[in-house]
Amino acid sequence: MKNKVKEILRIRGMRGAITAFVGLVIIYVVFGCINDKVFSLQNNLNLLRSMAKYLLIGIGQSFVMITGNIDLSIGSVVGMSAMVTASLMTRGVPIMVALLVSLLIGLIIGYVNGELVGKFQMPPFIATLGTMFVARGIAYLVNGNRNTDNIASILGKDQGKLFQDAFYYGKILGIYTTFWIAFLIFLIFSFILGKTKLGRHIYAVGSNKEASRLSGVDIVSVIKKTYLISAFCSVIVGYILCAQAGMGNMEAGNMYEMYGVAAGVIGGVSPLGGSGLLLGTFQGALLWQTLENGLNMVGAQVGIQRIVIGVIVVLAVLMDVLVRNGNLFSKKNKQ
Amino acid sequence: MKNKVKEILRIRGMRGAITAFVGLVIIYVVFGCINDKVFSLQNNLNLLRSMAKYLLIGIGQSFVMITGNIDLSIGSVVGMSAMVTASLMTRGVPIMVALLVSLLIGLIIGYVNGELVGKFQMPPFIATLGTMFVARGIAYLVNGNRNTDNIASILGKDQGKLFQDAFYYGKILGIYTTFWIAFLIFLIFSFILGKTKLGRHIYAVGSNKEASRLSGVDIVSVIKKTYLISAFCSVIVGYILCAQAGMGNMEAGNMYEMYGVAAGVIGGVSPLGGSGLLLGTFQGALLWQTLENGLNMVGAQVGIQRIVIGVIVVLAVLMDVLVRNGNLFSKKNKQ
Amino acid sequence: KQDAKDTTAAVTEGTTAAGEEKATEEKAENSGETTVKADKPYKLALITMDSLDQHWVTLNEGAQAEAKLVGVEVKFMSPDTKDDSKQIECVNNAVAGGVDGIMIAANGPDAISASLKEAQAQGIKIVYVDSPANVDAEASFATNNKQGGKTAGEEMKKALEAQGITKGNIGVISTNASTQSTVDRDNGFREAFEGSDFTIEETQYCDGDAAKAQTIAENYITKGVVGIFGGNEGSTVGIGNAIKASGDNKIVGVGFDKSDNIKSLIQDGYLLCTMAQNPDVMGKMGVDALVESLNGKDLKGETVDTGVSVLNKDNLK
Amino acid sequence: MGNSLVQMKNIAKSFSGTKVLKGVNLELGHGEILALLGENGAGKSTLMKILSGIYSKDSGEIYLDGELCHFQNPKEAQNKGVAIIHQEMNLCNDLSVSENIFLGREVMEGLSLNHKKMDEEAQKILDDLGISMKSTELAGDLKVSEQQMVEIAKALSQNAKVLIMDEPTSALSRKEIEDLFRVIRKLRDEGRGIIYISHRLDELRAIADKVSILRDGENVISGDLKDFSIDDIIRHMVGREIQDKFPRILCEKGKEILRVENLNAGPKVRDISFSLYEGEILGIAGLMGAGRTEMTRALFGVDEKTSGKIYLFGEEVKTNTPKDSIELGMALIPEDRRKDGLCTDLSIRENISLPNLDSMKNSLGVLSKELELKISEDTIKSLNVKAKDREMISKNLSGGNQQKVVLGKWLVRNPKVILFDEPTRGIDIGAKVEIYQIMNELKKKGVGVLFISSEMEEVLGMSDRILIFCDGRITGELSREEANQENILKFATRYEEKV
Ligand SMILES: Nc1ncnc2c1ncn2[C@@H]1O[C@H](COP(=O)(O)OP(=O)(O)OP(=O)(O)O)[C@@H](O)[C@H]1O
Ligand SMILES: Nc1ncnc2c1ncn2[C@@H]1O[C@H](COP(=O)(O)OP(=O)(O)OP(=O)(O)O)[C@@H](O)[C@H]1O
Ligand SMILES: [Mg+2]
Ligand SMILES: [Mg+2]
């Protein structure tokens, strides 16, 4: 029994996931004590629905981070996806086609990221900073520098409702579809990361690129795939925001790449690569959303909100760093 | 002669500085051909004045990047500095005191960054993401969630003008003071980076932390100093924005950290550390401002602007990467 | 309090009928009395587009002051930035938080509608302040932003013509491309120049940052524009400062919203005028309407155009 | 006792619960060269890192010239006159040679650095060492052996009382070693103390005065070197007798497996042609920088080839990437195991699995935990890897055990050709023999083994046939019978005439 626990604790990234879970519970309870509506069923349903988008971008960003890279274009791809999807729909394109086209364009950005970082070995921070600007530019241009009209106005109320329910307003087993979509993707990608060759290669590349290459890992292809996964997740979030608003907003997804980093890192994904679990990202996303939700529910000033969020991001990782270096409780290994 | 040229080209980061200069000239000429007002004296004066803020944050970010780290809190510290300075002035605090207090608070953020990254070895991306939120929160709180009133309204027209002229509206030798301030700081920090022990240690830490530590370099202190320098530069930019607007704006400096990265990286500072020259950062900042200015002057749509900026960021570094790997002209070193 | 007097003065200059109505409301506030009393200590939520713009902060202050008088609680539950998705979640949170009524300024009138309908389905009363959405509500106290923009354009045109200028380029600076109210102002402004020989430049965005707006305005001035319009507070301050710095007082600057800074720029002659709204009044009227409707009164979805008033050098004195 | 330069008493140190040093003593006198010996993982480097202030000790005392010292960081140790050359290369690649040499001890002129003085002094030290290198060159542009010399120059420049050298010669050529020894002796004659760690026992006689042997974090024996024979030393190190240092076996040479024709890749690989046969160990000798590593890298598809043909079992094959080569049944044990051989943050299990994931899938194509565990446990057992368990992070293994893990991950694939590039560098004698035995096993199974080594004895001792490289070319081929040190050196220095 004790061995079993030890075994589990030794899984790379598991400790981070557990830390995040503890933090999550604490935050949830604290807010609940301030405003007991936090514990209400409706609020919990909302929480799961809202965290879904952070979970998705967290998954994408985690894949990229585990290879030791970063994707700053996530937020822009979310916005681009929402705008492309909505623009097409308001031009009367059938839903499925609109979704596919949007996915395609999103994946192109992911592909370019992969080429730049994987093949041309550009620093990922810069490469994806570039595509971040480009994707946002496309979001602006696609409907001529304007937000789109309501999608139902062209698609018709039924079609519009269908789409909106599918991605945001509908429920399955009493829980919003948004959550189920994210959860399904979470399961699939957890499986890929934990149980497949690609997943193992992702850890290997994040740990040592050169050694992986000499072991026959096609590191360029692995890096490309992580950026495609990240773009895929971002596109789905774009659908969700589009369904939520019933229209495309050019600024949608702003800063989401950072929330993705936060979700991953709070959940124990190492931004230096080689380590992390999507289970942690799940906790991280939920923690982040609980924080946002709670601060909103208690009506905290935005200034206070920022400070609390900043402090929590730092603390989450600091704890982890201190525990790892063993100087949380002792004074050893200074410098 | 040829040897001299070769010698210069071998200086760490010199090649990047030259590439940026060439890019700068091209961009300037292209925009000038579209709108000849670009070449006007007033526009060039404006250009130098506007680039000063990018130069300053570029310097700060470059110092941090050369040690292989990053500072995401720059933009927030700029905003915080502008707000603190203006809030104090509109409460009747004498100018010098307001400036000093603002500097102090800015340096505290820099110090915290240094502690987190240097001493606690937190990933810099996360540590400074946290302080980015905190500093912005302070900017909101300091005047109770409001932009400040006009500083002249309390300080009096004369005092207000004095401050505004000193940092923005005044001219010396026909060029705006803003530029001179940035230029002076540029010279001082170029000296520090190129000619002093601290500068040498900054390169060493960025090149190989462990080797530097083993050689007796106090890497924690070096890292702290770079973050203090970065905060210092950000505070100065805060003064400039405060003087420019004559008030404190809570959102001032948004995204500046990225512009700092862009200026540095376009100018050949390696985001992986160990290499770069402030001379390059100078070119990078000027290029970035020329781009913004030019896109503005030719009246480009916001969508187009983003795309052009994104493409240029990528191209600037891609060129550098390709030249370095020698596969710009040959097909070597694939994979 | 000086603020309130300014607006009263301005309102007499105002062109809309709503102006009059507002003036009377305001007197009530000034005397510290209110005509409305809450039957129960209702819990209300105020959700503006963001929680940072001075405009929203003022609106919130108006609402909070009134809430105290009326005896209700108003929770300011706005998103930190202008973001449809975040605003929708704020509405969801308010619903989950068990409020009785919501006052909202819709960032995207379409975007927010579905979640408002959900709120109404739970028996929550909705009142619009500043910007309505596309769902029927108890009442609406909103500015016709397009009309406001048009008024701004007309003022600028008048001033230019007075200088004998009938053609030239005019710059536009706004906060961002995706907030409906500022987009409406932009469109209204352009409409005022339809059929004239003026050319309106491509709108440039400053994200609410006055310094950035100033840099953009300086570029416009270098290019040689005859006038510049600012779609919100930050842009307006930036334009005023740029005109001031250029020393070219012939350039006509017209803005939107009011603040200390804008007022002094107008008084010093760098800006021609600004389109002032009265957010504190909106806040107060919103609270009153929600309380009345919760008390059981049918407001029949009355929409009050709170209007904009033109603040210029003359009526600022 | 009073005149000892260094005295370490009862030093203990643990890493995350594992006792690495269990009360070790060490003594060094003025003008003495002490050879510190022991198996991989015996704790030599750890002990020296404590002496030089890099690690803090858990308990024990350090005296320098009789004075009790507590070093908190490397700088303090430096100030007290302790300099160390590390086992792993520790240079800043972006800095020049002189910048590296003076790092942390920059010469100032007022507020600013005195570049000129530093460059000149560095140049003087380099010249003294007999290294032809400009002090303004970038460290990153140097060859490994040159970098090693820079490390040595850096330590020498500190003018230290105590100089610690942790395997300084593992990357050096004979000529460079001789230059180094000359300098070391000079330092000794000046009255300094030198602690010298090496696995090259053959060079000890030429340099050391005293010897101290560690095993499993404990002192085994210390004394004057002249009182020990090499076999004594080996016995003390490994705790048992090693009969045959080079246990060569004879096998029937089979048919040709690999043929390389006119391989070219950059200036270091020029027109290489050779064949490798079943059940053969083909040794490759040469001086540092002869281009042997580059040849294997090009052959394996790590670096790009400019021209050349490769035949496997008589059929022409393309090896453009490592993946191609691996799929064709080749394996490469790279020279630098930390950089190229292992994902050091991953566990032993994951490292062993990395090239073998295809064979660990179950019928659904999903990685099978049982298969993976079985394969990794089997490998660990069969290669006798000393580790807590299979989940141990490979970073924390000692050099020899890391090398076994690298070997292990390839052996699982049953390759037909294995390229060993310096497989025994920095590995103790016991582990070396184990690796030789693995090579023999492979040979028996009919595998073709390519064996690059800079240690002449081992190439001579293990190879069936020897190719000698010089300057990127094959300059000679010797059968086992013909081969001896003089012959090899003759070919290894056969540079092209300058025109
Ligand atoms: N930082 C560390 N963390 C954990 N274990 C370590 C660390 N450094 C060394 N060890 C362990 O301590 C033991 C002694 O290592 P050390 O490097 O001192 O051996 P060594 O005698 O120098 O061996 P080699 O001849 O291979 O260099 C080894 O078992 C090693 O795995
Ligand atoms: N492109 C490269 N990338 C990485 N390492 C390289 C590269 N080229 C050379 N090296 C490394 O530089 C070192 C110097 O190798 P060198 O050129 O001296 O040839 P060598 O004949 O292999 O010598 P030896 O095998 O005795 O070290 C080797 O460790 C080699 O791995
Ligand atoms: Mg060692
Ligand atoms: Mg080699």
From TrEMBL, chains A, B:
GO molecular function (one): transmembrane transporter activity
Keywords: Cell membrane, Membrane, Transmembrane, Transmembrane helix
PROSITE patterns: PROKAR_LIPOPROTEIN (PS51257)
Pfam families listed in its UniProt record: BPD_transp_2
Major subcellular site: membrane
Intracellular or extracellular location(s): Cell membrane
Gene Ontology cellular component terms for the protein in this record: plasma membrane
Membrane topology value: Multi-pass membrane protein
InterPro entries membership: ABC_transp_permease
Membrane-spanning ranges: 12-31, 51-72, 93-112, 124-142, 173-193, 227-247, 259-282, 302-323
Highest taxon in the source lineage: Bacteria
Protein name per the record: ABC transporter permease
UniProt source species: Oribacterium asaccharolyticum ACB7
From TrEMBL, chain D:
CDD domains recorded: ABC_Carb_Monos_I, ABC_Carb_Monos_II
GO MF terms, alphabetically ordered: ATP binding; ATP hydrolysis activity
SUPFAM superfamilies the record matches: P-loop containing nucleoside triphosphate hydrolases (SSF52540)
InterPro entries: AAA+_ATPase, ABC_carbohydrate_import_ATPase, ABC_transporter-like_ATP-bd, ABC_transporter-like_CS, P-loop_NTPase
Membrane topology of this protein: Peripheral membrane protein
Record GO biological process: monosaccharide transmembrane transport
Limits of the ABC transporter domain: 6-241, 252-496
Entry GO CC: plasma membrane
Keywords: ATP-binding, Cell membrane, Membrane, Nucleotide-binding, Repeat, Sugar transport, Translocase, Transport
Keyword Translocase: yes
Compartment list: Cell inner membrane; Cell membrane
PANTHER family named among the record's database cross-references: CARBOHYDRATE TRANSPORT ATP-BINDING PROTEIN MG119-RELATED, D-ALLOSE IMPORT ATP-BINDING PROTEIN ALSA-RELATED
Name of the molecule in the record: ABC transporter domain-containing protein
Annotated source species: Oribacterium asaccharolyticum ACB7
